[in-house]
Prior knowledge:
The protein is of the alpha+beta class and 588 residues long. It has a domain of 64 residues. Helix content is 35%, strand content 24%. Strands 2, 3, 4, 5, 11, 19 and 20 form a seven-stranded mixed beta sheet that branches. 41% of the residues are buried.
Amino acid sequence: MSRNTNFSDAELRRLRIAGAVWLLIGALFIARLFYIQVIQHGIYDRQARGTRIVNQTIKAQRGEIFTRDARPGQEALYPIALNRDQIMLISDNRKITDDAHVAGVVATSTARTAEETDEITKKLSQKNRAYQILIKDLKPEHEAAIRGAIDREKIVGLYFDRLPARFYPERELLAHLTGFVGRDEVGEPIGRYGIEAYFDTRLKGTHGYVKTEKDPFGGWIPVADRDFDAARDGDDVILTIDRTLQLTVCEALKRGIAKHRARSASGIIMDPKTGAVLAMCSLPTFDPNDYQTVERPSAYNNRSIFVPFEPGSVFKIVTMGAALDAGAITPDTTFTDVGFVKRDGFTIRNAAEKKWGTQSMTTVIKESINTGTVFAADKLGSAPFRGYVEKFGFGQKTGIELKTEEKGNTKSLTRKGSVFLATGSFGQGITTTPLQLVNAYATIANQGVMMRPTVVHAWRSSDEKTEFNKPVEVRRVISKKSAGEATAMLRTVVEEGHGKAARVAGYSIVGKTGTAQIAGANGKYTEDNNHTFIGFGPANDPRFVMLITYEAPAARFAETTAVPTFGEVAKFLLEYLGVEPDQPDRRS
């Protein structure tokens, strides 16, 4: 028996409607797929690629800083600013239950004081912290000790992290030369002070980048069309500074500060033929590894280039050199001293109000006679004197490759009135930096030719190519003849005058003392003085120029402070550089 399959008209209508609906749904589904896969393919492809694309910055490594051995034939380099990982001890305070016990373990493993232990305990007590830095710069041996304690006592919640950091192995010794690496407003490393700041761009190099795709597991796909630009590491800087000489000068200044109870001190050694600075020490100093703990930011300032002061009598040879060069005087020109001169209603006297009678210009330098220097300046004239002061580099920066160099102040020489020429002639009423003074004496030592001071011996790129920094001649300041006459004048200071303590047996040393009153905040002179001695040697073929200066020592004159320090360092320096004695039969 067959089943009746005939549908009523109503049922057929419902079937047709249902079929039409399903056809419509199918058509819409196909249309949507077409729209997505064809029409909007680019949009969805970009979205998909966005989850696979990697844009990664490749960090450049900062160039490092080195000193070198200044002795002839020696090529050794010594690192003074390096890159290393800074080890940090981190705690997840949510996992630590016994704060005092964990703090005790950390303190014992790292030799912390009771006060430091309490600070660690306080940090651990902040229970909402999942990333608490307990110790920022952990020594490797302390890391090993803490790891051992964690294993023994099953401590949870302590772990270690590493952060790229700058390390200065010589600490305070070269701090004012290197400066340090700090952070800018967005947390990026940036050089501050010294070489780190002056050559920040060259040291930091150029970051690279890579743009490629990730596979489903997060790995990079080495596709051929990826974008890639390699990082270029920063250049290394090799300084002209000799570590041994730097240490010698700094240690001598430390002893001098302690002995003479001075506030501060500076010492500079320069090669007059090239302008290369072999040592530059300023005290007090700081540790660039821990620069954040410095109480006064002024500690960052390199006094040798940043703190101008009235130079006093060491400036007299500048006046004499200028007057000699202009033909206004000769070393044998005489004048008659009555103990004082009057200018614009002011009375200028000699030290200790001494009267010298008739004396030569050479004796004026040897005995440091104020009135004789005024005589030479008057013979030269105000405008020519000012011109020579500028030619000697005063009132302008030397251009040395260190941040925060100051230029001093010689504006008083432009003012009306003869008193400014008179006082300026012996270094009063104007200010200079120690480096400017060294550079002026180096000009005389170099037969009247000024070289640009430099602390850079060479740069070394990441591909080991070395670019040497060539000496730069700035200008001829005075003639060779005038420089020789000025040198002969300075020689009498060491042999017969106030610089006898600068003598070195077997060598001809020349130089000049300076004891200058320090002006107070109100502009009036105080009872305190700056003591300075600048000299060079051997006289006929100088291998070095050196400045030693003390701020406000307890002693009265530079003859008993700066001069002996100079003599001590000069003796070592000549032997260290292997300089043959030019007066082997002479004893000091």
